[in-house]
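Section 3.1 - Work completed
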Amino acid sequence: MPTQSIAFTSPLPPHECKQRINAAIDVERSDVWLTAAINGTHAVIGYAEGGKLRLRRRIPFSNFFQPHLTGALEAHGESTAVKASCAMHGGGRVFCWAAAIGILFFCGVALLASILNVTRGLSGPNVWWGFALLPIALGVGFALRAWHNRIVEADRQFVEQFLRDTLNARDRKSTRLNSSH
Protein backbone atom coordinates (compact mmCIF):
# COMPACT_ATOMS: atom_id res chain seq x y z
CA MET A 1 0.00 0.00 0.00
CA PRO A 2 1.39 3.43 -0.81
CA THR A 3 2.81 5.59 1.96
CA GLN A 4 3.15 9.33 1.62
CA SER A 5 5.63 11.12 3.85
CA ILE A 6 5.33 14.63 5.26
CA ALA A 7 8.10 16.72 6.83
CA PHE A 8 8.07 20.33 8.03
CA THR A 9 9.17 22.53 10.92
CA SER A 10 7.03 24.44 13.40
CA PRO A 11 8.45 27.46 15.26
CA LEU A 12 6.70 26.22 18.41
CA PRO A 13 8.32 23.96 21.04
CA PRO A 14 7.13 20.30 21.15
CA HIS A 15 5.00 20.67 24.31
CA GLU A 16 3.07 23.59 22.76
CA CYS A 17 2.64 21.64 19.51
CA LYS A 18 1.09 18.75 21.45
CA GLN A 19 -1.19 21.12 23.36
CA ARG A 20 -2.35 22.86 20.17
CA ILE A 21 -2.98 19.60 18.34
CA ASN A 22 -4.92 18.03 21.23
CA ALA A 23 -6.99 21.22 21.66
CA ALA A 24 -7.94 21.22 17.95
CA ILE A 25 -8.90 17.53 17.62
CA ASP A 26 -11.17 14.96 19.21
CA VAL A 27 -8.74 12.77 21.14
CA GLU A 28 -8.89 9.08 20.25
CA ARG A 29 -6.16 6.98 21.81
CA SER A 30 -7.18 3.52 20.59
CA ASP A 31 -5.93 2.13 17.28
CA VAL A 32 -8.70 -0.48 17.32
CA TRP A 33 -11.84 1.16 18.73
CA LEU A 34 -12.37 4.16 16.47
CA THR A 35 -15.07 5.82 18.63
CA ALA A 36 -14.34 9.57 18.49
CA ALA A 37 -15.96 9.72 15.05
CA ILE A 38 -19.34 9.11 16.69
CA ASN A 39 -19.14 11.47 19.68
CA GLY A 40 -16.83 14.29 18.58
CA THR A 41 -17.18 17.65 16.88
CA HIS A 42 -13.76 18.47 15.42
CA ALA A 43 -12.77 17.84 11.78
CA VAL A 44 -9.70 15.82 12.81
CA ILE A 45 -9.48 12.86 15.21
CA GLY A 46 -6.44 11.27 16.86
CA TYR A 47 -3.84 12.07 19.50
CA ALA A 48 -0.52 13.73 20.15
CA GLU A 49 1.30 12.44 23.22
CA GLY A 50 4.87 11.75 24.09
CA GLY A 51 6.72 12.39 20.87
CA LYS A 52 4.12 10.64 18.71
CA LEU A 53 0.99 11.62 16.86
CA ARG A 54 -1.76 9.87 14.95
CA LEU A 55 -4.41 11.86 13.10
CA ARG A 56 -7.21 11.14 10.67
CA ARG A 57 -9.98 13.09 9.01
CA ARG A 58 -13.41 12.79 10.64
CA ILE A 59 -15.90 10.63 8.79
CA PRO A 60 -19.27 9.63 10.28
CA PHE A 61 -18.32 5.96 10.71
CA SER A 62 -15.32 3.82 11.68
CA ASN A 63 -13.31 2.59 8.73
CA PHE A 64 -10.11 0.52 8.68
CA PHE A 65 -9.51 1.56 5.08
CA GLN A 66 -9.27 5.25 5.99
CA PRO A 67 -5.77 6.71 5.88
CA HIS A 68 -4.12 7.72 9.15
CA LEU A 69 -1.27 10.19 9.49
CA THR A 70 1.23 8.82 12.00
CA GLY A 71 4.51 10.40 12.96
CA ALA A 72 6.72 12.10 15.47
CA LEU A 73 7.24 15.54 16.96
CA GLU A 74 10.97 16.04 17.54
CA ALA A 75 12.61 18.97 19.33
CA HIS A 76 14.75 20.95 16.91
CA GLY A 77 16.32 23.72 18.98
CA GLU A 78 13.49 26.08 19.99
CA SER A 79 11.25 24.64 17.25
CA THR A 80 9.71 21.26 16.42
CA ALA A 81 10.40 19.03 13.44
CA VAL A 82 7.31 17.14 12.32
CA LYS A 83 7.93 13.91 10.42
CA ALA A 84 4.94 11.78 9.51
CA SER A 85 3.53 9.40 6.94
CA CYS A 86 0.00 8.81 5.74
CA ALA A 87 -1.23 5.29 5.01
CA MET A 88 -4.16 2.97 5.49
CA HIS A 89 -4.80 1.71 9.03
CA GLY A 90 -2.90 -1.52 9.77
CA GLY A 91 -6.13 -3.53 10.10
CA GLY A 92 -7.17 -2.40 6.64
CA ARG A 93 -3.83 -3.43 5.15
CA VAL A 94 -4.10 -6.92 6.68
CA PHE A 95 -7.67 -7.30 5.39
CA CYS A 96 -6.70 -6.16 1.87
CA TRP A 97 -3.82 -8.63 1.66
CA ALA A 98 -5.97 -11.49 2.98
CA ALA A 99 -8.82 -10.66 0.58
CA ALA A 100 -6.42 -10.39 -2.39
CA ILE A 101 -4.83 -13.76 -1.59
CA GLY A 102 -8.26 -15.40 -1.15
CA ILE A 103 -9.64 -13.95 -4.40
CA LEU A 104 -6.54 -14.91 -6.38
CA PHE A 105 -6.69 -18.43 -4.94
CA PHE A 106 -10.38 -18.75 -5.91
CA CYS A 107 -9.69 -17.37 -9.41
CA GLY A 108 -6.74 -19.74 -9.78
CA VAL A 109 -8.87 -22.76 -8.87
CA ALA A 110 -11.59 -21.61 -11.31
CA LEU A 111 -8.97 -21.13 -14.06
CA LEU A 112 -7.49 -24.57 -13.42
CA ALA A 113 -10.97 -26.16 -13.53
CA SER A 114 -11.71 -24.42 -16.83
CA ILE A 115 -8.40 -25.54 -18.33
CA LEU A 116 -9.09 -29.13 -17.26
CA ASN A 117 -12.63 -29.02 -18.70
CA VAL A 118 -11.43 -27.61 -22.03
CA THR A 119 -8.64 -30.20 -22.31
CA ARG A 120 -11.23 -32.95 -21.68
CA GLY A 121 -13.27 -31.65 -24.58
CA LEU A 122 -16.08 -30.20 -22.51
CA SER A 123 -17.66 -26.99 -23.74
CA GLY A 124 -20.51 -24.69 -22.87
CA PRO A 125 -20.99 -21.27 -21.36
CA ASN A 126 -19.99 -22.30 -17.81
CA VAL A 127 -16.59 -23.62 -18.87
CA TRP A 128 -15.35 -20.16 -19.89
CA TRP A 129 -16.11 -18.40 -16.59
CA GLY A 130 -12.85 -19.64 -15.15
CA PHE A 131 -10.93 -17.86 -17.90
CA ALA A 132 -12.90 -14.63 -17.37
CA LEU A 133 -12.74 -14.43 -13.56
CA LEU A 134 -9.04 -13.63 -13.21
CA PRO A 135 -8.97 -10.65 -15.62
CA ILE A 136 -12.24 -9.34 -14.12
CA ALA A 137 -10.86 -9.65 -10.56
CA LEU A 138 -7.60 -7.95 -11.54
CA GLY A 139 -9.46 -5.12 -13.28
CA VAL A 140 -11.72 -4.53 -10.28
CA GLY A 141 -8.70 -4.70 -7.96
CA PHE A 142 -6.73 -2.10 -9.92
CA ALA A 143 -9.79 0.19 -10.13
CA LEU A 144 -10.31 -0.05 -6.35
CA ARG A 145 -6.62 0.64 -5.76
CA ALA A 146 -6.73 3.79 -7.94
CA TRP A 147 -9.89 4.97 -6.16
CA HIS A 148 -8.33 4.37 -2.73
CA ASN A 149 -5.14 6.22 -3.73
CA ARG A 150 -7.26 9.29 -4.59
CA ILE A 151 -8.92 9.11 -1.16
CA VAL A 152 -5.54 8.73 0.57
CA GLU A 153 -4.21 11.79 -1.25
CA ALA A 154 -7.27 13.92 -0.40
CA ASP A 155 -7.17 12.92 3.28
CA ARG A 156 -3.39 13.42 3.45
CA GLN A 157 -3.71 16.93 2.04
CA PHE A 158 -6.55 17.76 4.45
CA VAL A 159 -4.76 16.49 7.58
CA GLU A 160 -1.39 17.93 6.50
CA GLN A 161 -2.95 21.38 5.98
CA PHE A 162 -4.70 21.11 9.35
CA LEU A 163 -1.37 20.25 11.00
CA ARG A 164 0.51 23.06 9.22
CA ASP A 165 -2.16 25.62 10.17
CA THR A 166 -2.36 24.43 13.79
CA LEU A 167 1.42 24.47 14.26
CA ASN A 168 2.23 27.63 12.23
CA ALA A 169 4.53 25.69 9.89
CA ARG A 170 7.41 27.67 8.36
CA ASP A 171 8.38 25.73 5.28
CA ARG A 172 6.40 23.81 2.67
CA LYS A 173 8.54 20.70 2.35
CA SER A 174 6.42 17.66 1.56
CA THR A 175 7.54 14.51 -0.20
CA ARG A 176 5.79 11.49 -1.59
CA LEU A 177 7.23 8.04 -1.14
CA ASN A 178 5.79 4.93 -2.79
CA SER A 179 6.76 2.15 -0.45
CA SER A 180 4.92 -0.86 0.85
CA HIS A 181 3.77 -1.21 4.45
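Second construct:
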Amino acid sequence: MIELGRLIPDHIQANILAWVLAEADCWDDWGMPATKWFRPWWSGLDPLPAFYEAKAIVAERCNFERFQDEDRRRYSQLSCTREGGGVAEHDHIDLSVHDPAYYLGKADCRINTLIQAPIDGADLMVDNVSFDPPPEGHAWTFDAFKKHSVYPVIGDRPRVVVSFGFHMPKADYREFCERVSQ
Protein backbone atom coordinates (compact mmCIF):
# COMPACT_ATOMS: atom_id res chain seq x y z
CA MET A 1 0.00 0.00 0.00
CA ILE A 2 1.29 3.44 -0.92
CA GLU A 3 -0.33 6.60 0.42
CA LEU A 4 -1.03 9.21 -2.27
CA GLY A 5 -2.26 12.22 -0.26
CA ARG A 6 -5.38 14.19 -1.21
CA LEU A 7 -6.47 13.56 -4.79
CA ILE A 8 -10.20 14.34 -4.63
CA PRO A 9 -11.14 17.94 -3.68
CA ASP A 10 -12.85 18.38 -0.30
CA HIS A 11 -16.14 19.67 -1.72
CA ILE A 12 -16.51 16.55 -3.90
CA GLN A 13 -15.65 14.30 -0.95
CA ALA A 14 -18.34 16.11 1.09
CA ASN A 15 -20.96 15.51 -1.65
CA ILE A 16 -20.06 11.82 -1.82
CA LEU A 17 -20.13 11.45 1.98
CA ALA A 18 -23.56 13.06 2.32
CA TRP A 19 -25.01 10.81 -0.40
CA VAL A 20 -23.42 7.64 1.07
CA LEU A 21 -24.67 8.31 4.60
CA ALA A 22 -28.19 8.96 3.27
CA GLU A 23 -28.32 5.95 0.92
CA ALA A 24 -26.04 3.20 2.30
CA ASP A 25 -28.70 1.31 4.27
CA CYS A 26 -30.40 0.47 0.94
CA TRP A 27 -27.26 -1.11 -0.56
CA ASP A 28 -26.30 -4.78 -0.67
CA ASP A 29 -24.29 -6.46 2.09
CA TRP A 30 -20.99 -7.93 1.03
CA GLY A 31 -20.07 -10.78 3.32
CA MET A 32 -20.70 -8.85 6.55
CA PRO A 33 -24.03 -7.17 7.35
CA ALA A 34 -22.35 -4.00 8.67
CA THR A 35 -20.55 -3.47 5.34
CA LYS A 36 -22.65 -2.05 2.51
CA TRP A 37 -21.50 -1.71 -1.11
CA PHE A 38 -22.68 0.30 -4.07
CA ARG A 39 -21.32 -0.87 -7.42
CA PRO A 40 -22.79 1.18 -10.26
CA TRP A 41 -21.87 -1.36 -12.94
CA TRP A 42 -24.03 -3.98 -11.23
CA SER A 43 -26.99 -1.70 -10.74
CA GLY A 44 -26.66 0.12 -14.08
CA LEU A 45 -27.21 3.40 -12.26
CA ASP A 46 -25.46 6.75 -12.48
CA PRO A 47 -26.91 8.29 -9.32
CA LEU A 48 -24.17 10.64 -8.23
CA PRO A 49 -22.34 12.94 -10.66
CA ALA A 50 -19.69 13.73 -7.99
CA PHE A 51 -18.67 10.06 -7.98
CA TYR A 52 -17.72 10.12 -11.67
CA GLU A 53 -16.25 13.60 -11.39
CA ALA A 54 -13.98 12.15 -8.67
CA LYS A 55 -12.98 9.24 -10.94
CA ALA A 56 -12.04 11.63 -13.75
CA ILE A 57 -9.96 13.76 -11.36
CA VAL A 58 -8.14 10.68 -10.01
CA ALA A 59 -7.45 9.43 -13.54
CA GLU A 60 -6.08 12.82 -14.56
CA ARG A 61 -3.94 13.34 -11.45
CA CYS A 62 -2.47 9.83 -11.71
CA ASN A 63 -2.08 10.07 -15.50
CA PHE A 64 -4.39 7.05 -15.96
CA GLU A 65 -6.72 8.39 -18.64
CA ARG A 66 -5.50 5.70 -21.05
CA PHE A 67 -6.50 2.96 -18.57
CA GLN A 68 -10.07 4.07 -17.96
CA ASP A 69 -12.58 1.47 -18.97
CA GLU A 70 -14.99 2.46 -21.75
CA ASP A 71 -17.83 2.11 -19.23
CA ARG A 72 -17.11 4.66 -16.50
CA ARG A 73 -19.12 2.58 -14.01
CA ARG A 74 -16.85 -0.47 -14.30
CA TYR A 75 -14.31 -1.08 -11.54
CA SER A 76 -15.76 1.73 -9.42
CA GLN A 77 -17.52 1.39 -6.08
CA LEU A 78 -18.44 2.98 -2.78
CA SER A 79 -18.45 1.26 0.58
CA CYS A 80 -19.85 2.18 3.98
CA THR A 81 -18.70 0.05 6.92
CA ARG A 82 -20.38 0.47 10.29
CA GLU A 83 -19.25 -0.75 13.72
CA GLY A 84 -18.20 -4.40 13.66
CA GLY A 85 -18.09 -4.57 9.86
CA GLY A 86 -14.99 -5.16 7.80
CA VAL A 87 -14.04 -6.63 4.46
CA ALA A 88 -13.29 -10.35 4.22
CA GLU A 89 -10.11 -11.41 2.45
CA HIS A 90 -10.57 -11.54 -1.32
CA ASP A 91 -8.95 -10.59 -4.61
CA HIS A 92 -10.35 -9.21 -7.85
CA ILE A 93 -9.41 -12.15 -10.06
CA ASP A 94 -12.49 -13.36 -11.91
CA LEU A 95 -11.84 -16.27 -14.25
CA SER A 96 -15.36 -15.98 -15.66
CA VAL A 97 -14.40 -12.57 -17.11
CA HIS A 98 -10.76 -13.07 -18.15
CA ASP A 99 -8.62 -16.14 -18.77
CA PRO A 100 -5.67 -16.85 -16.41
CA ALA A 101 -3.12 -15.42 -18.87
CA TYR A 102 -4.77 -11.98 -18.56
CA TYR A 103 -3.87 -11.81 -14.87
CA LEU A 104 -0.21 -12.75 -15.35
CA GLY A 105 0.69 -9.45 -16.96
CA LYS A 106 -1.89 -7.10 -15.42
CA ALA A 107 -2.44 -5.22 -12.18
CA ASP A 108 -5.76 -3.97 -10.82
CA CYS A 109 -4.47 -0.60 -9.66
CA ARG A 110 -6.88 0.47 -6.95
CA ILE A 111 -7.00 4.12 -6.04
CA ASN A 112 -9.06 4.30 -2.84
CA THR A 113 -9.91 7.40 -0.86
CA LEU A 114 -10.91 7.35 2.80
CA ILE A 115 -13.81 9.82 2.66
CA GLN A 116 -14.60 9.30 6.35
CA ALA A 117 -12.41 7.53 8.91
CA PRO A 118 -13.93 5.46 11.71
CA ILE A 119 -13.13 6.14 15.37
CA ASP A 120 -10.75 3.15 15.35
CA GLY A 121 -10.05 -0.12 13.60
CA ALA A 122 -10.30 -0.68 9.84
CA ASP A 123 -6.61 -1.47 9.39
CA LEU A 124 -5.81 -2.64 5.87
CA MET A 125 -4.26 -5.99 4.97
CA VAL A 126 -2.67 -6.57 1.55
CA ASP A 127 -0.83 -9.81 0.77
CA ASN A 128 -0.66 -10.65 4.52
CA VAL A 129 0.91 -7.29 5.42
CA SER A 130 -1.04 -4.98 7.76
CA PHE A 131 -1.17 -1.20 7.21
CA ASP A 132 -2.64 1.63 9.26
CA PRO A 133 -5.38 3.44 7.36
CA PRO A 134 -4.33 6.71 5.73
CA PRO A 135 -5.57 10.04 7.12
CA GLU A 136 -9.15 10.98 6.37
CA GLY A 137 -9.48 12.46 2.89
CA HIS A 138 -6.31 10.80 1.61
CA ALA A 139 -5.96 8.20 -1.13
CA TRP A 140 -3.85 5.07 -1.33
CA THR A 141 -3.04 2.46 -3.95
CA PHE A 142 -2.52 -1.30 -4.07
CA ASP A 143 -2.86 -4.11 -6.60
CA ALA A 144 -6.31 -5.64 -5.97
CA PHE A 145 -5.41 -8.82 -7.84
CA LYS A 146 -3.56 -9.61 -4.58
CA LYS A 147 -5.44 -10.82 -1.51
CA HIS A 148 -6.69 -7.93 0.61
CA SER A 149 -9.06 -7.24 3.49
CA VAL A 150 -10.05 -4.67 6.11
CA TYR A 151 -10.23 -5.28 9.86
CA PRO A 152 -13.52 -4.46 11.64
CA VAL A 153 -14.53 -0.89 12.34
CA ILE A 154 -14.58 0.14 16.01
CA GLY A 155 -16.97 2.86 17.15
CA ASP A 156 -20.13 4.45 15.82
CA ARG A 157 -18.53 6.50 13.02
CA PRO A 158 -18.70 4.60 9.68
CA ARG A 159 -15.72 4.07 7.39
CA VAL A 160 -16.61 5.44 3.94
CA VAL A 161 -14.38 4.67 0.96
CA VAL A 162 -14.59 5.50 -2.73
CA SER A 163 -12.63 3.03 -4.85
CA PHE A 164 -11.60 3.27 -8.48
CA GLY A 165 -9.84 0.48 -10.36
CA PHE A 166 -7.65 0.74 -13.42
CA HIS A 167 -6.49 -2.46 -15.13
CA MET A 168 -3.03 -1.91 -16.58
CA PRO A 169 0.17 -3.78 -17.40
CA LYS A 170 2.16 -4.64 -14.27
CA ALA A 171 5.14 -2.68 -15.61
CA ASP A 172 3.02 0.50 -15.81
CA TYR A 173 1.73 -0.01 -12.27
CA ARG A 174 5.25 -0.64 -10.96
CA GLU A 175 6.45 2.57 -12.67
CA PHE A 176 3.55 4.52 -11.12
CA CYS A 177 4.34 3.15 -7.65
CA GLU A 178 8.01 4.03 -8.01
CA ARG A 179 7.14 7.55 -9.16
CA VAL A 180 4.74 8.29 -6.29
CA SER A 181 7.08 6.73 -3.70
CA GLN A 182 9.85 9.25 -4.38
